[in-house]
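Students often ask why we bother encoding 3D structure as a string. The short answer is that it lets us treat folding as translation between two languages. Here is a chain of 119 residues written in the first language.
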Amino acid sequence: MGLRRTRYTLSLFQIDRETLESLSDVVEDNSHGIELDVNHRLSRALSGHIGYGFERYEFIYVSSGKENDDYHTFSLDMSYAFRPELITQAGVEYYDRSSSNSVNDYDETRLFLDVRVEF
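And here it is in the second language, the structure alphabet:
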């Protein structure tokens, strides 16, 4: 859905998979999630983006049973087009994974700067 300067995007998904290999430790891999993005044009050259995503993965292992992993993703970035062929983007992304197996828990923050020249 979009307004004059703002575009909203909502995505939903669900994936259910069973292993095809008889020697695999993973019996089933099921996942579902949601993603929400808001893009806003502040001017002809400057635009901003904010996003959130949630994903849940459910694994069933032969050796250890069931495991659930929850992923949360937050993002905030800005892009500026100096010219149509020269675009700069800068932002921050935060990832968090919590798992029923605490060994697999982690979080991470990424800062990025991207400069592109297209010919």
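Translate back mentally: The first strand starts at residue 6 and ends at 18. Keep this in mind for the problem set.
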